[in-house]
């Protein structure tokens, strides 16, 4: 068995805070979500941990992802920061730990933080390790540091309008899974007439169409929502099958439209 497998469908918690994130995670778990994605910089790990604890769903049934923030990349900081995250999340391990963004100005070399991630894995603090927002050059460095077989995923912005094919193709060639975030393009994809037409033809929602598209390409998705009906509806994307014609039509929507590229953090995108 490939120990790097990750669920195809999960719940994102970016921008959700306090009671809002507790309610979203508890509702999601109640509806059947089993992957919860958080990060140190989101400032909500403790609330996510509380929601999981109060959900009544056994810890072993839940896949928890967190991401190390740039300030904690140094070899002497990474493992302690992850232990702090585990305390907040009320667990002795997470299922996946990602490097959130490349180290600004390469302040901490890729080999150093990937090595520290491997140490965290060896100590049982995380079952899998991976990267986020890495371009091809950085992926090559990460592979050189720890081997592609140890990199479970590269989590990148990916939507019908930003299909990131160069990064995707390189990751696939190395056996590295892609996790798509902002798959719905902050809701912009839901208003696209082509996607709206596909949705109405299938008696589905535009969100279901976009999420099904990404999963059919083999990507994992982590949409977030605070509304119970949207959380429930998004889950149904897993049952939706798009035709080859639909997939080809969405493939043509790529326009390289990137919605997140923080200055000082983002690499030179491929």
Automatic annotation (TrEMBL):
Pfam families: Aldo_ket_red. This is 2,5-diketo-D-gluconate reductase B. Keywords: NADP, Oxidoreductase. Its EC number is 1.1.1.346. Signal peptide: none annotated. Gene3D superfamilies: NADP-dependent oxidoreductase domain. It comes from the Bacteria. GO terms for molecular function: oxidoreductase activity. NCBIfam families: PRK11172.1 (NF008377). InterPro entries: AKR, Aldo/ket_reductase_CS, NAD(P)_OxRdtase_dom_sf, NADP_OxRdtase_dom. Belongs to the aldo/keto reductase family. The keyword NADP applies. It is an enzyme of class 1 (oxidoreductase). Residues 10-253 form the NADP-dependent oxidoreductase domain. It comes from Variovorax ginsengisoli.
